[in-house]
Structures are given as structure tokens and as C-alpha cells.
Amino acid sequence: MSASKVARMVMDGAARFCRSAQGEPLAWHIPVEPIIREEEAVHLRESLLPHVHRLWQEYCDPATPSAITHDVYVKLWERSRPTIGADFILFDEAQDADGLMLSVLRAQQAQVVYVGDPYQQIYEWRGAVNAMDHIRAPERSLTESFRFGPAIAQLASRVLNLMDEDVPVRGQDHIESRILQDSTPGYDRFDAILCRKNATVLTHLAQAIARGDKVAVRANVEELKAFADGAELLMRGQRIGYPATLALFESWEEVQEHARRRLHRQHRAPGQGPGMGSGPPRRRLQVQDQRRRRLEHVAGRNAAPVCRDDPG
């Protein structure tokens, strides 16, 4: 493991501590890549924990040259046991609150009203917790939206019902909303595809180009190209330092094995994931080169369908 990777783990551990309610850094604050086995992850966290403590001490010392982030001064503010001079506190987007902010609010004497939607939580990856699951208080539903009409409200209610939500959404009768089908005359067909992983973006991109569709990627295309370049270097037997998702692997075979283990843990049949086939190296390198050309082809274009990559 490279020194830069270890340094990043220490810094990420300090950042997660800053966003937590704990009084000192703990081993579980240090994020470890899923490729590392659990027993090795435990040892790695314990060995890095003293360095996280040292970094936090440097953050707290005004005389040290270490730069601090927003998380650090918010943590220092929380440790000062602040009192918010208000009779009522309205805390919005509570589904993405972190442990630190919850600890501050729970220490206040004022009445706190938490507003949030658990179906819109997007920051769990950086330590956010769904405050709606941790607060014991009377609940009221805000079900009326001023952004759309009844048609979209009915569709949203059907989707929420699939999530075992029995409270319907209401729209505004004076707003004309329509649900467009592929066969709607006068409208061009387009698809908006939300993807959680870069590999999924590449898969949809390849499929769309094969169909002859015009494609635009609403994502960092350079990052996707870097992923393809990193994969090619691994296939050639070279170690890489970027992107981080591939930097921990020593070979492409390790990438494949990691993918198989992930699939097995998800109770699926073991096999290769998209773009991780076990064909001959020449064939795999040709596939990577084709994907790079496709990415260069769509970079900067603004036509549908859209493949969008959301980090997660």
C-alpha cells in the first residue's frame, strides 16, 4: 500500500471522527476498502489509529502548519458545547444529518423540529445518519408539493408504495403535469439513466452507442477515461496510483477476484461483472480501447439519452 494511500486513510479517519459525536477518534472511523479482508482491516485500523490521534492533535494546535477543513472547525465548535440562542430550531434535510450535528441539537434547551425525507438520503457514504430513525418525537407528514400537478403526484405515490410507504403525495390542481410515454406524438424519445457506479455508466454507454443512439454523459468523463486507462495498465501488469478504486489492486486478476467475491456476498452466482471478463489480454485491451474512444466521442455532447453517474 502506497504512502499516499495510507495518508488518505488517516485523513479520512480524522474527517469521519470530526463528523461524529465521539469525543476522540476510534478505529471504526477509519474507512477501509472492501477489497481488504475483515481480519486484515481490523489490524490496519488499529495500526493507523495512533496516526489519526496525532493528526487530530495537530488540527487542534494553532501553532502547527497543518491546514484544517470545514469538518475540523465544526468539530471544535461542537466540543465547546455551544448554546444556540433560539426558542425554536428548525433543522432541514435531517435525513442527511451527521452524528456531530445531532449531538449539538440534542444538547439544546430549545424545541427542535426535524424536517427531512428518508427517501432522499444521499450522504450516508460520508457518515450521515438518518435522523428520522433516531428521534423519538411526534411525527407529521408534509405531503403536498407545490412543484407539480396531480399526474406526477399519483406516479410518485405509486413509487413510494413500492417502498411500503402508505402516505400518498399530493400535487397542485392548477399545475398541469403530464407523464410522457414513448409513443407520445410530437415528443422526442429520450432516456435519463441514473447510475451509481462508473462501470454501469460504461455499460449503458456501450449499449446505447451500439444501438446508434446519440449519447451524452452527465459526469466527469475524464474520470471515466482515467478508470479505463487504469484498468488497461493493470491488464498490462503495471501497478497504478490513480484512480483510487483500482490503486489497491496489484493485477487485473485481483480486480476480477474482488468482483467475484462481491457478487458472492450479494448472494448471486459467482462470475464476472460488467467489463471484467476473463478473455485473452489482447481482447481485453481492445475492449478498453474501444471504451476510451467512445468516451472521447461523447465528451462535451448534450444530447439524450443521458447516462449520469452519481457517486455512491
UniProtKB/TrEMBL annotation:
<dbReference type="GO" id="GO:0043138">
    <property type="term" value="F:3'-5' DNA helicase activity"/>
</dbReference>
<dbReference type="GO" id="GO:0005524">
    <property type="term" value="F:ATP binding"/>
</dbReference>
<dbReference type="InterPro" id="IPR000212">
    <property type="entry name" value="DNA_helicase_UvrD/REP"/>
</dbReference>
<feature type="compositionally biased region" description="Basic residues">
    <location>
        <begin position="281"/>
        <end position="295"/>
    </location>
</feature>
<dbReference type="GO" id="GO:0000724">
    <property type="term" value="P:double-strand break repair via homologous recombination"/>
</dbReference>
<protein>
    <submittedName>
        <fullName>Helicase superfamily I</fullName>
    </submittedName>
</protein>
<dbReference type="GO" id="GO:0031297">
    <property type="term" value="P:replication fork processing"/>
</dbReference>
<dbReference type="InterPro" id="IPR027417">
    <property type="entry name" value="P-loop_NTPase"/>
</dbReference>
<keyword id="KW-0547">Nucleotide-binding</keyword>
<feature type="region of interest" description="Disordered">
    <location>
        <begin position="259"/>
        <end position="312"/>
    </location>
</feature>
<keyword id="KW-0378">Hydrolase</keyword>
<dbReference type="Pfam" id="PF00580">
    <property type="entry name" value="UvrD-helicase"/>
</dbReference>
<feature type="compositionally biased region" description="Basic residues">
    <location>
        <begin position="259"/>
        <end position="268"/>
    </location>
</feature>
<dbReference type="InterPro" id="IPR014016">
    <property type="entry name" value="UvrD-like_ATP-bd"/>
</dbReference>
<keyword id="KW-0347">Helicase</keyword>
<keyword id="KW-0067">ATP-binding</keyword>
<feature type="domain" description="UvrD-like helicase ATP-binding">
    <location>
        <begin position="87"/>
        <end position="130"/>
    </location>
</feature>
<dbReference type="GO" id="GO:0003677">
    <property type="term" value="F:DNA binding"/>
</dbReference>
<dbReference type="GO" id="GO:0016787">
    <property type="term" value="F:hydrolase activity"/>
</dbReference>
